[in-house]
């Protein structure tokens, strides 16, 4: 891959990777599991996972590819090679911590999900990213533990995931001498999710949701968290939920603070 042709995104926009693309015969399994001078598929994935500590722009791509480590097929190998081609062209990129207004230490977050993204299990992907003083310090892209019945439910579960992280970060910042006086704003792009988080009345859309996700209502009532609407066009966490087209990917990558500095 030293002389590979760089690409502008880690995954092809709207591409899908499934277990059905994995080989079914033992010979093919061994053929695809080990390649590149004997280097194991999972070894490559593990090495790139280490890079995600400072490169959130590849968090989603490598998280998806890691799911096929026990039985990768040719499409998974090609996608992994594309990630390496992307890193080849952006090896000089860095993660910027701190922006123009470093005096503002209010914690701000973005949360998003992509409903039924996994075609094998129909589970959705939860994502969040948090910023303080102009720099993003925490991010996540994770498959949800259960199947969501609707977009609202998927977004609500993602918001719950983000709220748990926000509470932990607020405690950490207080220990470091930066107490969060105001409620931490978390941006979401689903009005139904925001309404559900503020409405304590149970109804047909919410009565089946696991009680562990409803604690977000208590945090909002205690003025620790404030869910606010933002458009999908401005949803930074979208980069953690699906393969994006070049323009959208580049925009959100810059918003995360990844680039040439």
UniProtKB/TrEMBL annotation:
- List the InterPro entries hit by this protein, alphabetically: DNA/RNA_pol_sf
User: Which CDD domains does the record associate with it?
Assistant: RNase_HI_RT_Ty1
Q: What is this protein called?
A: Uncharacterized protein
